[in-house]
Every structure is written in C-alpha cells, then in structure tokens.
Amino acid sequence: MLRIATALAALLSGAAPAQDQADPLTRPIDVDRAAEWLAPRPPVRLFGTSYLVGFAGLNVALIDTGNGLILIDGALPQAAPRILATIAKLGFRPRDVKYILSTEPYPDHAGGLAALARDTGAVVIASARGAEALRTGRLAADDPQLGYDSRFPPVAAVRAVRDGEVLRLGKIRVTARATPGHTMGSMSWSWQACETRRCRTIVFASSLNPVSAEGYRFTAPTSRPIVAGYRRSYAVMKAMPCDILVTAHPNQGSPTGRFITGPGACRGYAEKAERLLAARLARERG
C-alpha cells in the first residue's frame, strides 16, 4: 500500500511517480519507444463506468462493475505505479481491482501485470497460451517476435479462460475472444457499458498487425499456424458487435485518438491489419 500512496502523492503534486529501482517488478525495461509509449495522458471516460487509465502509446482500460474493478493490460513494468495512481485519481481504490485481463504476453502490455497483481491482490486472466508465457515472463517458442528475446516480470498465478468464456463481476459481463496471430495467445475483450437506458459495446482489441523479429518469415511452413490465426482473428473482429474500439496501442486503431467510435470500427481495424499481412506475404514471396 505504501507504493500506491507514494504514486498517488506524486501524481497529485504534478510529478511522475519515482521508480523504485530496487523493486524487481517495476524495474524499467529500456526499449527504444518507452518514452513515447508512456507519455502521460489524463484518464478519460469511454462510456458509462468504463475508462482509459493508460498512456499516449499504450492503452490500459478500467471498468467499474459496481462490485469491484476490472483492469485490462498493464503496460511496461515501470508504468505500474502510474496506473495505480491514475485509478486513485478517478476516486477508486486500487485494492478494489479484482481482475486484470491480458491481451498479449509482451513486455509493453504485460510487463506491469506482476506488480499490479501484487499491489492490488487481483487475479490475472489470459488465454491458455497467454497464461503459459505470463507465468515464465518469456515469449513462446513460435512467437514471431521471439528473436528480440523480450523478457518481463513473470506473473506467479494466472487464470486461463477459453474463447467465448464470460467473466462476471458486479453488473458487467466481459467476453473473452481469442484473436491469435500477433501472438498465438492473444485475447481481445468485449463488454457492454451503459448510461441510463443507453448501452454501447466496447471492444479492447489485441494487436493484429504482422510484426516480427528480423529474419522471421510468415511464408515459412512453420508459420502456417500463425497466418491461419491471423485470418481467423480478422474474421472474428469483423463480426464482433463493436460501438467503441480500444486497441492495445492507440495508433493501431486511430492515428490521432485513444479510441474510436462507430459501428464499423472493429471491421475497419481488421481490414487494415488484413492488408498489412497481405503486403507482408507478397514482399516475402516477391
């Protein structure tokens, strides 16, 4: 609780919370785009009791269910104190976070999960494949970005959920939707947020763009399951009810905003990623 109180005091004073270099769970991961990804942004309400509590280049969502909070993603390890401080700034208690949902087991989205779970007591939830990677803090052997040798603090306890499984907490029902490709364990999450009699379906989508470490080939025979996963995910994303789209990296969904609205948001997101994969496959074959 001292870490939370210190982070909140720093936020209210206008300063960024200092990093505890001795804390192995929040020790900064030094990646080229860390400063850009973690540029501060104020919390914003999406609709009803759903909010964004993340950063310029990494989205983190918060849902007030009326009987506890749900957090989606955890950004880099060094971001955890700032996420907790932002939750408190909105008037919520970080200890009321009951679930932390993971989109994909990469340092920029899952690096902060171990610290957030420790400091809130929340249960971390991911797909079965995602849970395997979160428990080890390493990318899976078939991950297109394995060559980067990315590591992050492992999460001791992770609950695995199936595609289509519904998580219930308070007045909120969150549906897990498998969207493999970027990682084979990637998971997107959807729920309804309501204001009086108006409701909107919000989708927090995992990354769908075909990114890889140098030398990886999506056209290699061993990559066929990855490509098939992408194509399945595009179909799933196009068919999902979707009034508000939040992407793991804000610029994947919208070049200027943190989220986008409109009934075609998820379809447009999938179609853009589909074109990127087609172009990547064409270059490799060319």
- Counting structural domains, the number is 1
- Looking at this structure, what is the CATH superfamily? Ribonuclease Z/Hydroxyacylglutathione hydrolase-like
Structural class: alpha/beta
- CA distance, first residue to last residue: 56 Å
Strand fraction band?
15-25%
Question: What is the CATH architecture term?
Answer: 4-Layer Sandwich
Rg estimate, integer Å: 18 Å
CATH topology name, in short, is Metallo-beta-lactamase, Chain A
> What composes the largest sheet?
7 strands, mixed
Number of continuous helical runs: 9
Specify the CATH class.
Answer: Alpha Beta
The sequence of SSEs as H and E is HHEEEEHEHHEHEEEEEHEHEH
Low-pLDDT runs of 5+ residues are 9-18
Spatial strand arrangement across the major sheet: 1-2-3-4-5-6-7
Average residue-wise pLDDT: 92
